[in-house]
Structures are given as structure tokens and as C-alpha cells.
Amino acid sequence: MHYRNIGKTDVMVSTVTMGCWAIVGDFNWGPQDEDDAVAAIRSALELGINTFDTAEAYGSGYSEKLLGKVLEGRRKDVVIATKASPSNFAPKKLRRACEDSLKRLNTDYIDIYQLHWPNHEVPVDDTLEAMDRLREEGKIRVAGCSNFGPGDVSEALAAGRLESNQVAYNLLWRGLEYELQQICVENEVSLLPYSPLAQGLLTGKFRTPEDVPPERARTRHFAAERPHTRHGEEGAEEETFEAIKKIEEISEGLGKPMAQVALAYLIARPGVASVIAGMRNAKQAAENSRAADVELSEGDIKKLDIATGPLKKRFGPALDMWQSEERTK
Ligand SMILES: NC(=O)c1ccc[n+]([C@@H]2O[C@H](COP(=O)([O-])OP(=O)(O)OC[C@H]3O[C@@H](n4cnc5c(N)ncnc54)[C@H](OP(=O)(O)O)[C@@H]3O)[C@@H](O)[C@H]2O)c1
Q1: What pTM, to 2 d.p., does this model score?
Q2: Does the residue 281 lie in any domain?
Q3: Domain total for the chain?
Q4: What Cα–Cα distance (Å) separates residue 191 from each residue in 48, 92, 297, 311?
Q5: Which of 4, 63, 166, 241 is the most exposed place for a label (fewest CB within 10 A)?
Q6: Over the stretch 146-164, which tens digit does the pLDDT of each residue have?
Q7: DSSP type of residue 83
Q8: Pocket test for ligand 1, best of 197, 221, 267 (most atoms within 8 A of CB)
Q9: Please, where are the H alpha helices in the chain?
């Protein structure tokens, strides 16, 4: 495992983070055995993953509670990243949300406290000032954001400081490369890619678009006819599976599982501190943690860029994988 700094701070994250959304086993993910979730967390820890990403919204607090329980006794070894929901960005609400998360997480500080999605109704200056107070009081170590677009990040940095931005980024969704990535690199705001396996598409478990169950087929890759989409677009199912086939061939050539190549690609991209990968059991934790040691050459990265170039062009600079009406700016 390798470790990198978050933004300009001394908080060190493992290059692979365990994402703790899917382990709640909700509508999107289907049932989850809690023993498997606990085993995934323990296995991640053993393999050197020190960073765990959760949110007050995941399972309405269940994900935070489970983490708090399983990480008991290991607090000083881990970095906990959680998120406040946009409805809680007004200063008083943010304080309350933070204190509630602390209780559920069974701790007295949060390492990385992130604004989950932009809320353009609450002035970002007020929210960042509230974050500063929480930091001064030792309740959080670092303020970060998530799903902030180029305009959102620039506005926030003019008002205060954010050390990280967690965004959808994977080989099939490269919109941030158009503009956001450079802004984050220039300002030393760490990028934390989420859904790095495109919610399972980049593991090879789905051979055709028809294999993807409706609850999973919600992103803009899939046609609007899919029952749970909300983007109203035609999707790009054929192009998506063509790209997956090419990535698979490149991975076979490297003798590595596609999931590890997909994660290693992101770890090698500018500005990325850690990839936030979902893992629902110990086996997935082991497989995904190994990506930290996969080194891709410039040539391999170029091949992957070319293989996924048509999709990148197709979706353009969009950041929101689910809605065509951008929630970011
Ligand atoms: N800030 C935000 O708005 C936001 C949004 C989304 C996610 N996130 C964060 O990012 C994390 C990861 O994103 P994600 O869960 O959406 O997608 P992901 O990491 O791309 O995909 C994870 C899913 O792929 C499957 N998988 C993982 N490793 C595998 C392996 N080695 N072999 C086979 N299947 C494997 C698992 O589901 P199955 O076994 O069920 O197939 C797992 O839940 C989340 O947990 C969350 O912390 C943040």
C-alpha cells in the first residue's frame, strides 16, 4: 500500500480508500450480509487501507454506525472521511450534522469532513466559515467537498479553503479531465475519485448491457428506458460495452484483473490522492487493495485513454453521472 497527503495537510490517506456506501445494502446495491461488511472493513485494515469513506446519508447513518463499531480501538490508525448532506450546509445545521456524525462514528474527530453536493442556496462563505470553527474546535481535521464543479471549486477557494474534492471518475466517466482536474491540481486540492469501478462495470461481471440489473443501470451510460434512470437521454450502452471489452483486452495483456487496472489508472492520474472503491466482502477488499501496487507505464495509460476516448468525447465535461441537468457548476 502507498500513502499520499490530502491537499496541503499532513493527513495521509492510503491510495485505495474503502467506500462504505454499498455495505448498507440499499435499493441500489441489494441485500448485504453485515458479517461480510465487517469482514471487508477488517480485511481492508489488514491490507494497509487506512481510509474509510462514508456519509450521514448512507443507510441514514447505518454506514457511519457500523464503521464506528468495527473501528473501535483502531481510531488512531485510520482516516475517517464522512459527508454532510446539502440540506445541512447552513452553519447551525452543519454543526449539528457534524456532532451527529461524531456520535454515530463513536469518535471525537472526523479526519476529512466533506460537503456532499453543492448547495447553491446557502452562501459557500458561510459554510466554509462554519467548517473553520469546527476545525478550530478539533471536531474535524480537514474540510473537503464532493461533486463540486470548476465553478463551485473556484468560488469556494475564493472564499476559503478546501483540501479535497470527491468526484465521479472512472475509465468510462472522464468528464473531470476537461477542466476540473487542472483547477484542483493548480490549487493543491486532492482529487478523490468515487465509483472508480463504474459501480461494477469495470470488474467484468456484466458481459452485456442486458446483464446489468435495473437498480444498477441508472447512470447516463444507460438508456432512459431503464426504469430507474432520471437523465432522459439515450445513453451509450453499446459504446460503453465496446470500451469495457477494450479495457479487458489491455488488462489481459498486462496479466492483471480489469478492476485493478481500472483503479491503478486513476491512482496514476494528476491530482489523485486516493481512489474510493466499494468493497462488500473480504475478497473484494483484497482484490481492490492490490491495485495500489499495480504500476502502469505511460504507454499503458495511453492505450487506456485511447480505448475510452470515444466515451469521453460522447459525455463531454459532465460530472454528474446520474442527471443531465447538472447539480454542479
Ligand atoms: N460523493 C458522492 O456523491 C459519492 C457517490 C457514489 C459513491 N461515493 C463513494 O465512493 C464509493 C465507491 O463508489 P461506488 O460504490 O458507487 O462504486 P464502485 O466502487 O465503482 O463499485 C463498487 C461495487 O463494485 C463491486 N465490486 C467492487 N470490487 C469488486 C471486485 N474486486 N470484484 C467484483 N466486484 C467488485 C461491488 O458491488 P457488487 O459486489 O454488488 O457487484 C461494489 O459495491 C462509495 O462506497 C462511496 O463511499 C460517493
Answers
A1: 0.98
A2: yes
A3: 1
A4: 20, 28, 21, 21
A5: 4
A6: 999 999 999 999 999 999 9
A7: E
A8: 197
A9: 34-46, 62-70, 91-105, 124-136, 150-159, 180-186, 237-254, 258-267, 282-289, 298-315
Residue 77 lies in a domain: yes
Beta strands 16-19 and 140-146, pairing class: unpaired
Q: For the segment 263-312, what is each residue's pLDDT rounded down to a tens digit?
A: 999 999 999 999 999 999 999 999 999 999 999 999 999 999 999 999 99
Give me the domain span that covers residue 14.
3-208+257-296
Distance 138 CA to ligand 1 centre (A): 30
Residue 194 a catalytic site member:
no
Does residue 301 lie in a domain region? no
Q: What spacing in Å lies between the alpha carbon of 129 and ligand 1's midpoint?
A: 32
Q: Which residue's CA is the closest to the ligand 1 atom numbered 30?
A: 284
170: Cβ contacts below 8 Å, ≥ 6 apart: 193, 195, 196, 197, 198, 202, 262, 266
